[in-house]
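Async update (no meeting this week)

Hi team, since we skipped the sync, here's where things stand on the single-chain job. The sequence we agreed to prioritize is pasted below, unchanged from the tracker. I ran it this morning and attached the output directly underneath so nobody has to dig for it. Comments welcome in thread, and please keep replies under the output.
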Amino acid sequence: MTTQNLITTRRSFLKAGAVGTGALLTGGVSAVMAESKKAVDQYGGFKLGLQSYSLRGYDAKNALKHTRDLGLHYWESFRNHIPVNTLPKHVAEQQKLLAGYDVKLMAFGVENFDGNETRARELFDFGKAMGVKAISAYPKKDNKTFDLLDKLVEEYGIAIAIHNHGPGSGYDKISDVEKVVKDRHPLVGACVDTGHYLRSNESPVDAIKRFGKRVFGVHLKDVKGYATDADAAAFIKTGKARRQLKNEQKFFTLLGEGDLDVVCCLQLLRQLKYENIVSLEYEENKDNPLSDIAICLDAVRKAVKQLG
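Output:
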């Protein structure tokens, strides 16, 4: 793609947005809204959706179909499903694809950011055209990058949600994110990946408390720690263990079967009046994750019932 193709006007993106809206209206917006409201209601008012990486074993159309079959209407996409491309034709095609399955794109990522303004604007331009609320991000830790992000979140009205990638990453601990967002624009904040914080021996509950209004994304996943090999063997026998992380003495597992306090996380998000997507992210069983995802969604519904 040429630089000329990358640099398009905001007017072009608004026009592309109108194309997508028209396609949705043609399909019967009232029916879509009614079904979406029902989906939101069963998750306690939260916009519960998928980080589409959970369905990376499928192409975009089949991933969207499975999303709808699971009763969900919200996506945080990764690049293999919704490629970042600012050409109006591409934007219109992606909007039409999503609208055809009654799925709304709320966020995308995780995207790397540095001081390259041209590339950063491509991501923000795409986000603006697609109507997203936040971009899940992994920014370089320097003033040039964060000065640029301060400027762009103000200009576009799109939040940057810094994603914690777990042990060994630049954003391993809660404090790693706190340090870089301190004194920055209010729209520069965090995407709380609950599973990766558990891997880092951090509390996702504490993360939500400490970030507060700077929480712009949530990846719900669960991890189970163990102290001894006997503990690990016992957990494997339950049938709830998935991928084992031996060096960390942990397992990825089904939501609600690990160390994550799902109820408390949701309660805190409700107190914050959190309105962005809550993305279930299930990374196991890439080729056939649907039954496990359904179990995870049931765990969310059960947690919601405990909120009162």
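Quick observations from my side:
The radius of gyration is 19 Å.
Residues 10-26 form the longest helix (17 residues).
Reply here if anything looks off.
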